[in-house]
Amino acid sequence: MLNRDKGPIQDIATTQWKAGAGMIDANIGPAEDSGESLMEWMVTTIQEVVPLPICLDTTNYSAIEAGLKVHNNEWGSPLINSTSNDPERFPMLELAAKYNTLIIGLTVGKGGLPADAEERAAIAAEIMARTMEYGVPLEDLYLDPLVLQIATSQDHALKVIKAIRMFQELNDPPMKTVVGLSNISNGCPKQLRPILNNYFFSLLMYEGLTAAIADPQELAPTVKTINVILGKALYAHSYLEM
Amino acid sequence: MAFTLPKEAYTGKVYSVTIGTDDNTVAFGGENVLPFHIFEGVVPNRPVIAYEIQDVPPDDWPENIQKPFETVSNDPVTWAKFCQDVLKAKAITLRLKGTHPDRQNRSPEDAAKTVKDVLSAINVPLIILGSNHTEKDAAVLVAAAEAAKDKNCIIGKAQEANYKTIVAAAIANNHKLIAMSELDVNLSKQLNILITQMGLDREKLIIDPMCSALGYGLEYTYSVVERIRVAALVQNDLTMQAPMLGDIGMYVWKVKETQASEMDMPQWGSTEERGITWEAVTAIALLLAGAELLIMRHPRAVGSIERVIEELY
Q1: Residue B4, in any domain of the structure
Q2: pLDDT per residue over A120-143, tens digit each?
Q3: How many structural domains are present in chain A?
Q4: Among B185, B194, B197, whose Cβ lies nearest the Cβ of A234?
Q5: What ipTM was estimated for this complex?
Q6: CA-nearest residue of chain A to B231?
Q7: Are B249 and B52 spatial neighbours (Cβ–Cβ below 8 Å)?
């Protein structure tokens, strides 16, 4: 990214698109210096090769706006990652309203990490109220319970699963949900990571998770299998090949 | 407050399949709604009924279904022309029944000649079926597909046991293909996957979920047809979006109710009326379940189904 080398970024994006991704997350970190031009470059670089919308992932407000300005909405609405209960992140909702985009609501506040599923749901309700105040429709909000590392916060894995269930009950039609999946296995030995990611993901799917920021290639067999088990896709012996 | 019709929107769509050549084509499928839900979406084509004829005289058919064809059914060409010119058939199905080893055991070459003769006598699209002997069909349908090369026919039926050669013949000779499985939605999907993995465009496929007659398992066929259509429309399952076939006539005209005489069954009424009604009722049930292509026999049953289609559209 720093050298503005398009090749590797476009390769990753293309691979993910072919593996069935519906959106590409462009994470440029906090990007305090020249975040605007970096996000612009990321969005156009990715959309040059894949016909997908982009998830704009940074805490830098003006970098998000710069990305939204060049985003090709022909492939779908972009997703802002993210607003939260931290007042510094409220302005992201302004951008969502102004540019008519989707937005992730991360259920954390200024005071640190949520203790359990109930606290996540309480923060979610506050984010939802604020989302409506800013004029963003609730169907454009994706609630993110904040996945923590299993290696250091084992009890949160189950709390996140429970939060996914609770978030949906906060509205009718149910609220949409999203997770940054691979954080569950962050810090774990390399060979364990896909195992943790896949099993955790299948439990989240069972609870009705709408979306995940994850490696679609790694998850494809799980997605297909869970869809078959949940009756969302018709079984055939070759279902994994489709 | 004005009444607003509640509408379902579906993510999937059934492929439209066109058969025949030049100005003599007919299309079916193409809708993005459940059967006859014309108010909900796009229904570009009406269901098509194809008259069934055979390569050999229909001496195994009950008397009442032989009768409408008694002057023409000795020769498949005359029979085909009768269906086209007199009965105004929109399509014709030639069943190569005589190739079955337990029947006349006609050779693939004989079958190919019959196909050529029939094709040169008619303009309407042709559906070419084997005798439902999986081994023999593989040879017969290859010869038949070659004889009909580029005539954009439908050939069938490809089944799990013989699909490879038949699929190859359909691809090589530019035909559409019927994939038949035995009343099982999962096996139907599997066969479709295997066939498309061989290189046949999925838009060239027609699903035969296996038919059955009223009173003889029609409810099983009905629910398999329904499930396939729901997979196509609601789950947007790309492997299940082919139009479906109801091979009505051969299943209806062998059940007791279409044959038992009035003498034996006085409480059942006229044998002839009963048979025609049996075929029509079976056909309408499958149309309501989701079939877009029907193979039928009795002209009066066909007539009544065409009127129903006309009225529902």
Answers
A1: no
A2: 999 999 999 999 999 999 999 999
A3: 1
A4: B185
A5: 0.86
A6: A234
A7: yes
